[in-house]
Amino acid sequence: MNSSKGVFSFIPIYGIRRHRLLRDGEGITTLIAFCGCPLCCKYCINPNSLLKSSATEYLSPILLKHRVEQDELYYLATGGGITFGGGEPLLYFDFISNFTELCNKKWKINIETSLNVPKYAVGRVIPFVDKMIVDIKDMNPYIYEQYTGHSNEKVVENLKYILDLGYAHKVQIRIPLIPHFNTETDRIKSKGILNEMGFFNIEDLIYDADIESVRLKEIIDVENNGKVICGVLKRIRVAIAESNNIEFTPYNCEHIFCHTGTCPLCEKELIDIKHAIILKKCKCDNNR
Question: SS3 of 223, please?
Answer without folding.
Answer: helix
